[in-house]
Amino acid sequence: MQTLPTLIAILCYLTAASLQWQTISGRSINRQVIRLIALVAIIAHSYAVYLDLHHPGGIHLGFFSIGSLIGWLVATLVLLSSLRQRIDNLFIGILPLAALALLFTLFGIDTNIAKQYDSGLVIHILLSILAYSIFTLATFQAVLLAKQDYHLKHHMTKGLLRSLPPLQTMEALLFEMIWTGLILLTLSLVSGALVFEDLFAQHLVHKTVLSILAWLLYATLLIGRHFLGWRSHKAIRWTVGGFIVLMLSFFGSKFVVELLM
Question: H/E element holding 173?
Answer without folding.
Answer: helix 167-195
